[in-house]
Amino acid sequence: MKNFKFKLTGLFLLAFVLFSCTDDLNTEPKVELSLENLLKKDPNAVQGLLSKMYGTFALTGPDGPGSSDISGADKGETGFLRGIINLQDFTADDMKNRWGDDGLDQLTTTSNWDENNKFFRYLYDRVYYTVPNSNNIIKALKTVDIANKEQYIAELRFIRSLAYYYMIDCFGKGVIVTEDDLGSIDPKPQSSRQQMFSYVESELLAIEPIIPQTNNYGRANKATVRMLLAKLYMNAEVYTGQPRYDDAAVYVKKVIDEGGYSLATNFQSLFSADNNTSTEIIFPLIADALVSQSYANTTYLVNGSLSSDTMTLSDFGATDGWGGHRATKAWYGLFGASAADLASSPDDRAHAFWTQGHNYEMTNYKTWTDGFPSTKFRNSNFSGASTPTSFSNTDFPLYRLADAYLMYAECAVRGASGANISQALTYVNAVRNRSNASSVATGDLTLDFILDERGRELNFEGHRRTDLIRFGKFSGGSYLWPWKGGVPAGASIPDTYKLFPIPLTARQANPNLTQNPGY
């Protein structure tokens, strides 16, 4: 059981409001006890409020897996992490889903996207659930005198910035709402991608000195803030038209040099139920089979990739297999051209797929046995025995050191000052050698190699769509993958797909919002 639990009960619940982005974003919540009075009466209540806000990235609602903070017919579909995987991995080359229910086909085939797709709405609504509620707590904290107040406010500003980052990345625009807007009844003006980028950048730079060097597991520290800054700068050319790789190198180097993290000795340990002991994970989204049950945390990744038809569920610590997700050859093909190649590969990462009874080619993405399920995430302990459970105990490593190493290497290859090729080679080989992959030479460090290595190391971790866009491989027809554009061999998709459509419900709620081009 993790030492930072996401629970919001009793008095805390009286002070918290649940609403979605289809409501007035700028209105203070109606509460039985104001947040200010709650915190004055019980200063320790801030711990519950803070844990709730961290929990918005892993859980769906306050009353277990059947509840949701936002509207949706299937509450389990509405979670932040589930949305990140749906929009970042199913729309990319690494993962496909066969269920096809009410919009999921559009994601997995990168075709026929429109403003009514519920999965776009779920992620959009999650952002505008997390942001206003963070604002409410920040405003309340500013009025009371409690220990570590500035740190709590800084952590909430990080949470708000993280939510906004996905708005920048996925939708390219939105509205910026802060604690100063609470009580306003006028719809906020639309903010451009550049404006949102500048706001998040300024927030992160402001809180970096305040956030502690170390923090409780599951909470943001300096390395976490610096990773988000580095992510922002890595993609700045996409977001703003201006490359910022020099700045990305500065902050990723701080993560590496000052964070105190080290690579885990075994790759699979990072995705097992006891990964909370890892030396590599910088910022996890916590899962606990008892106190933080959710169909939208790593339960979605583990159970969605298993089926009793072809696999023994207990081998992966699970009691349920949903038979939905499979990798494509765009991922496992990085390790070989057949199941036999994967089995004989010395690279441990090549063994994170279930090949028995499955076909290498994904002729039909709706056929469970077409494509290899990824067993990268599992609910069994890496060290010691574990008991299978319906919900996952495996934390999701949103940020980890291997990603920082590969980001540094990419900065070096792109010519960033402050990053050199010699050090980049050391970091890349450290990542590869940890999985028993062979070392590479300086001449191997090309952008194409870096993108492939990011795929081998980081696929199914919510980065792939963003990576493909940054490397110029997402839209168009120069790089094809299975079912891109809705055909088995892949087809060109328009540049407009680099952004998702603004949900119709959001534009109905705020007439200042305009639709993204092409939708």
Outline the secondary-structure elements.
Elements lengths: L10 H4 L20 H7 L3 H11 L24 H9 L6 E3 L6 H5 L9 H24 L7 H22 L22 H15 L14 H13 L1 H5 L4 H14 L22 E5 L12 H7 L20 E3 L1 H4 L6 H6 L51 E5 H13 L7 H14 L12 H12 L5 H7 L33 H6 L10
Antiparallel strand pairs: 1-3, 2-4
Please give the order of strands in the largest beta sheet. 1-3
Helix content: 25-40%
In sequence order, what are the helices and strands, one letter per element? Answer: HHHHEHHHHHHHEHEHHEHHHHH
| Helix/sheet category | mainly alpha
Strand content: under 5%
Biggest pleated sheet:
2 strands, antiparallel
Radius of gyration: 22 Å
The count of DSSP E runs of length 2 or more, i.e. the number of strands, is: 4
User: What shape does the CA trace take?
Assistant: globular
Residue windows where pLDDT falls under 50 for at least 5 positions: 4-32
Instruction: Tell me the number of helical segments per DSSP (H or I, 4 or more residues long).
Output: 19
Q: How confident overall, as mean pLDDT?
A: 93
What distance lies between the first and last C-alpha atoms, to the nearest angstrom?
45 Å
What does this 3D model show about the protein?
By secondary structure, this protein is mainly alpha-helical. It is built from 19 helices and 4 strands. Helix 15 packs antiparallel against helix 17. The chain is globular, with a radius of gyration of 22 Å. The relative contact order is 0.14.
